Amino acid sequence: MVQAVTRARRSRSWKRTLIALAFLAPAAGLYGWLILGSFVRAIQYSFYDWNGVGEATFVGVKNYTDIFTNTSKLVTLLHSFELMVFFTGGTLVLALAVAALTGHVARRRGGDLVRTVLFLPQVIPMAASAIGWSWIYSREGLVNQILDAVGLSGITRAWLGDTKTALVAIGFIGTWALLGITTMMLSSGITKIDQGLYEAARLDGANAWQEFRAVTLPGLRREIVVCATMTIIAALASFDIVYMTTQGGPARATMVPGVEVYFLAFSQQKVGAAAAMGIVLMAVVLLVIIPLQKLSSKD
């Protein structure tokens, strides 16, 4: 009797498993075809010299060696890491400050307005934001108007047209674009921290900075890792901001791997070289992100 009941339960369990697999199969097949299939083809193309139309020529790892021996392509990768200073470092510092300072506002009247204003950059299409920032940074734009008004007309310039300032200007655009979502995530994390920890810190005589360092920061470790992961990927894989503002110029001063892949594939018809650059970019992202995920998983 017991064995019969056990067999019946196993049979029902297998049926449920098969039904679940049947429902998952279409989505899994589509994912495998579109994502994994494209990834495998990209790896294949990276070993060929191909213009996308004619006959492909096998070149082995030449496309990869060109990336690491070509100074201009190495600088392209370096630009992504420079953008991380703004996209990740600047954004996290500002987001932590804003989240800590406005935490009490979110629980009172006006909190919805604060959240809406902070989240606004995420709602605006990046293409529209890039065009707006191009005007702001132009010779007659808002930045130069402010500098003229405060008596600093001597340093005005076309900020996106100067090789010394173009990448920094794009970095500030990225900080603006990512500040809202990171602040929202960190503010949400702050609300989950036990308020008793803050009360205990105050009883011990801790000031606001000591509370932030001893209670808020440790309590936001997972949220900080998530925000860092998101902003690092945005910096390393940046495309839309750079393409819409400078297209990698002036003189490749803002060229990043995403834009480089686009020009290699569609302007220079070097599909193999573009695929190799994309694979290298993916590897760089993983090398940076995986240690962060391990940090987040630690208790």
From TrEMBL:
PROSITE patterns: ABC_TM1 (PS50928). GO terms for cellular component: plasma membrane. GO terms for biological process: transmembrane transport. CDD domains: TM_PBP2 (cd06261). Keywords: Cell membrane, Membrane, Transmembrane, Transmembrane helix, Transport. It is a multi-pass membrane protein. Its main location: membrane. SUPFAM superfamilies: MetI-like. Pfam families: BPD_transp_1 (PF00528). Belongs to the binding-protein-dependent transport system permease family. This is Carbohydrate ABC transporter membrane protein 1, CUT1 family. It comes from Actinomyces ruminicola.
